[in-house]
Amino acid sequence: MKPRPGPSVFENRSTLMDALTFQKKKTNRRKLKFTEFGFSSTLEEGLDSMGFENATPIQEQAIPVILQRKDLIACAQTGTGKTASYLLPILNRIANNPKERVNSLILVPTRELALQIDQQIMGFGYFTGATSICVYGGGDGIGYEQQKRAIREGVNIIVATPGRLIAHMSSGNFDFSDLETLVLDEADRMLDMGFHDDLMRIISYLPKQRQSLLFSATMPTKIRTLAKKILVNPAEINVAISKPSEGIDQQAYLVFDEQKIDLIKHILSDPSFESTIIFASKKEIVKRLTKELVKMGVAAEGFHSDLEQAQREDIMNRFKARRVGVLVGTDVISRGIDIVGISLVVNYDVPPDPEDYVHRIGRTARAATTGTAITFINDKDQNKFARIERLIENEVRKLPLPEGFREGPLYAPKTGSNKRKRPSNNRNKKRSPNAAKPKAGS
Description:
This protein is α/β, with parallel strands linked by helices. It is 37% helix and 15% strand.
């Protein structure tokens, strides 16, 4: 198979920026440059052409381990550049030994994340000659046949969701005998979605002698159990486990459900929020909220499981191009979207899992930028939010509701034996005409 054409390098530059740009830290530590890893000249040419110079902390630690062909278990928060930390060594290996064969398999939980990773490979494919195919469900018969043919012809890198890859493996004979690297990306999410058995079935088809890399945003017991099954004497890396980026200004409002739509309208009236994602836990809420926003003249689109794949891709492309200013979605997009410049994330409700909070708000403040994350907390979600604050080891600032809103609920989560109600700052305080609305990076 021939590598895809070069224009994708520039079309996907914002994606690659997110994956590779150094996330600034307040430290005097010398930054490791990509030229110090000993990559092939073609890969270095690609990095140089795109203006990438310094590695992120996860890349500094993971790339040398992967280049030594050791197994690895790595825990890093979203937005740290972990995708590039495994893609660059894989692409380097292919550039040094180009063959039409399946060299690497990358398994991910969602089609959105699969497409995002494939776009990054496309950009570097122009320089390294690496080929790839994105294997996911939800498409038409033509897409399925294209995936099947690419696998049979020896595409270098397969990026796949477990369910669709199982379907391909069940319907034909594919040669994975030359496979060198297996990557499980967002492994915790795949286990949460019930993919354990599919993962183990896929792995049973792969060569015993291979390099296995497991990347996860969290490190619960089930991830360590999986690691023991598939990794051999792995190196272990932990980078900022379950902590939001320092560039995110986290805020919260205490509201009753009937106040949420009016509060969203008030927040979105701030012109500094040019690109916004609103998360809701149910697709019914996504549909209803999107309809309300469109009625008020907001360029909003809903993103949920009822959409066809072509509709999803169209919405995402328009959001990236800033033709859609507000994306309303469920957690299906909390890990599968890599876009620099999202200024605001709103949690319309508190996510049920504290880890999901980290992933939701991690859509902003990517690639050394800043952003704002606002969470609506009703009277029923306070215990959930208290668990989030314990996880991130930080008390999120509770803002007073804007002038004209009636008082919201008190913040009184039940934390162990401490069941005493605490007054919150959420009072209907009189604000001056010049009072600032919440702004990105404030």
